[in-house]
Amino acid sequence: MSIVVVGSVAYDTVETDHGSVTDALGGSACFFSLAARFFAPVSVVAVVGTDFKPEHQQLLADRNIDLRGLERREGKTFRWHGRYHEDMNRRDTLATDLNVFAEFAPVLLPDQRRADYLFLGNISPRLQQHVLSQVASPKIVAADTMNHWIENERAALMKMLGKLHILMLNDEEVRTLSGEHNLVKAGRAVLKMGPKTVLIKRGEYGVLQFSQESMFAVPAYPLEEVIDPTGAGDTFAGGVMGYLARNRRLNEAALRSAVVYGTVMASFVVERFSLDRLVTLTWEEVDRRYRSFIELTDSQHRRWTSRIRRD
Amino acid sequence: MSIVVVGSVAYDTVETDHGSVTDALGGSACFFSLAARFFAPVSVVAVVGTDFKPEHQQLLADRNIDLRGLERREGKTFRWHGRYHEDMNRRDTLATDLNVFAEFAPVLLPDQRRADYLFLGNISPRLQQHVLSQVASPKIVAADTMNHWIENERAALMKMLGKLHILMLNDEEVRTLSGEHNLVKAGRAVLKMGPKTVLIKRGEYGVLQFSQESMFAVPAYPLEEVIDPTGAGDTFAGGVMGYLARNRRLNEAALRSAVVYGTVMASFVVERFSLDRLVTLTWEEVDRRYRSFIELTDSQHRRWTSRIRRD
Hints:
Two copies of one chain form a homodimer. The first copy, chain A, is 35% helix and 24% strand. By secondary structure, chain A is α/β, with parallel strands linked by helices. Chain A starts with a strand and ends in a 14-residue tail after the last helix. Chain A binds chain B through residues 86-87, 181-185, 202, 205-206, 208, 214-220, 222-226, 252-253, 256-257, 259-260, 293-301, 305, 307, and chain B through 86-87, 181-185, 202, 205-206, 208, 214-220, 222-226, 252-253, 256-257, 259-260, 293-301, 305, 307.
């Protein structure tokens, strides 16, 4: 039930109204792993430069994240610099330095090629396809993408969509991909492009889940304060894939629980800068907030009953 | 279990990307009544001019809405003219002609003074207070307001808040009233001003419900097309109060069901211009969408069970 994640490991410089951080550990593979590890073993496929700090390597390793697939290349680690607007729903990218990430050509280890669960973080669809082709018979493949790829590598992206169990993207991206402004139309249009399930991430407005047979709408966890939204989407993905890998079955009930766990994990990461909150997070806190979320979204106000299999 | 509603009866001119209507029947009292009448008898307190069309009077009367409290004054009926932006979340008011509504001084009929359920639509807090003082011992009092009153009649509004069981307002209004941008902080701050429950209407993003003991978050019903959002808030209020009047008890479970019925009623009204959809709506359609909504928001993917008392 091990999960393989391919994505970025980055140093982020982030400015919000609450302050800023410089060269903080980030990147999709880090946020994803630190969330997914609560549910199942995670193995990373990523690249860093020679400037990647040993304490960061240690931080991930200490949390049982398998880093044998973390390639170290001559050069600098990927860097991103962004600034959030006051309402935290919008941000400006001030700088993106791909550095060693520009030549990333992931080659999976023999055991990674036998993975049952694969998450293709937001990298070029050609690289996603390259990774996917190395995995023999995955049970669940999920992917993220962004407007840059939708606009510039649409053909490669479209070719990959049919191989996905789950495509996760935000409201802006699903609109770009589908050409539909309305999210219900957009979600259904993207379903027809191949993925079995489409998850539309709406930030503070929650998630819409589309499958052939059904739709699921869930609000975000209402928070009193959002410090830094960076990585919320990848953290959500970590909760979703983590739960599915632990649960092993991919049906509507499992997907819904997975989306709630993803929502819960994302609600933690935005409480602090960078991935700080995920580092101190305990399973007891996750479990408590999951229960609290079920209660606060239950329109029938029933007593809460656990569904998670603790195997 | 009869509901008294005080509010506006208006002729609306509305422009959206889907077209426009001129002098269509509208106003908070109309939207509210046409939703609430599915659950309980409704009695209107409002004013119209001599231009109010007999067919509109008939339309409401035919749907069992008690119009004995609809005063007819020399002059023209209240008129509103608005234009929605492409995304339907924002609108510009192009004209507001209060006409006879400017001198509205509601006097309730003897039986209205014995009402158990009272909805104070969006009129000046002083008028709301004036109406409230005429009702002997209401079981549930709910009110709506808007930024204009929050900014210009704050003292009168604050005085009334302590007498409310439910205050309904949108995200912008709750921010103005509380001075807090974050909706959780804003909702809790407004709770301290007096109302037992605060409902924050977020349009296509759903509703947040705050009470002393608990919080409830629910998404909007995902629609493929929104034609005209006018009246959605009052229609929501009609569903909420209608359900509570029928259910008779005001506890957390009843409030949550009421919010879902409000959400369902609002999801219908935006499907057509003005109140057209409410006019053709049947209870079977309401019931079907209620079930569908419970299913599509149930994170535990349980079988649906009815809770509504059909008394």
